Amino acid sequence: MNKEIDIIIVDNNEEYALEVEKSLKTVPAFRIVGKVYDGETAVKKIIEHKPDVIILDLVMPVKDGIAVLEEIRTISFEPKPVIIVLTAIGNEKIIKKALSLGADYYIIKPFDMDLLPKRIMQIYGDFERAERQYREYGKTVKLPNFESEKNESDETEKNTVREDLELYVRRVLMELGVPAHLSGYGYLQMAIVENSLCERGTIPITKQLYPMIAEAFNTSAGRVERAIRNAIRKVWQEGNRNELSKYFIYSEKRKNHPPTNSEFISTIANKIKLTYLSK
């Protein structure tokens, strides 16, 4: 991560925005390209500067954070900015709403300002690696330029399918009730996407899938396995039972016996292959 990272801070509290700015200025790679205090101005500044990272409060005048997310979601950015919600609102429904509208991470105030630069570096780094991994994994070798336009069209279509599938899997996880703030959420999303796109059945979970996710998120395969396990246990105990029953035989007897990581990932991926991708 050698390039400068352009950041816009959006918070209705000017003093708090200044604290955030002071904290981020401790990292030479961070460049603050805007501090704004209402949602309408925020959208204009985001369009103008096309930042790498947006730090967004949800409680703001004129347009709140949810309205900002809804509006910038309709705008084509290349690359997409990393959106970090930093707010005092800890309501689970609001968290899910923000993440469904494109927020990549959710931090609840008060938050240790000394940790904020580190967390942003981690999230932005994970995002870059994950985006690169999503684009590169399973991609067919590009043919020489003299090949027909049909091959280029096929490749574009594959990339479009992947992008649509990533959004679809995110929605599935949210409907199941997988807590979006858990690290296992992102790992599960990638695992299900890759298995859904795998034409040879399923990806061997220990030898290939965990290491692949670990590389994308700059962590270890063991941490990936444990985080996914934790997320599955959480959703099995507290998730949406009606949605879970669409994929698994869910009963009170099984409440304390969640599926294995492999079973959870492959079951959802296989259903996506049969329903969503078959269309």
From TrEMBL:
User: Is the keyword Iron in the record?
Assistant: no
Q: Where is the signal peptide?
A: none
Instruction: Name any Gene Ontology BP term.
Output: regulation of sporulation resulting in formation of a cellular spore
MF-aspect GO terms: calcium ion binding; DNA binding; DNA-binding transcription factor activity
A GO cellular component annotation here is: cytoplasm
Q: 4-aspartylphosphate (modified residue): where?
A: 57
Where is this chain's protein located in or outside the cell? Answer: Cytoplasm
Q: Please name the Pfam families in this protein's record.
A: Response_reg, Spo0A_C
Q: Which InterPro entries does the record match to this protein?
A: CheY-like_superfamily, Sig_transdc_resp-reg_C-effctor, Sig_transdc_resp-reg_receiver, Spo0A_C, Spore_0_A, ST_Response_Regulator, WH-like_DNA-bd_sf
Cofactors (names): Ca(2+)
For the ligand (Ca(2+)), the binding residues are: 11, 57
Q: Which domain of life is it from?
A: Bacteria
Functional note = May play the central regulatory role in sporulation. It may be an element of the effector pathway responsible for the activation of sporulation genes in response to nutritional stress. Spo0A may act in concert with spo0H (a sigma factor) to control the expression of some genes that are critical to the sporulation process.
Name used for this protein in its record: Stage 0 sporulation protein A homolog
Q: Which organism is it from?
A: Thermoclostridium stercorarium (strain ATCC 35414 / DSM 8532 / NCIMB 11754)
Q: Recite the lineage of the species.
A: Bacteria, Bacillati, Bacillota, Clostridia, Eubacteriales
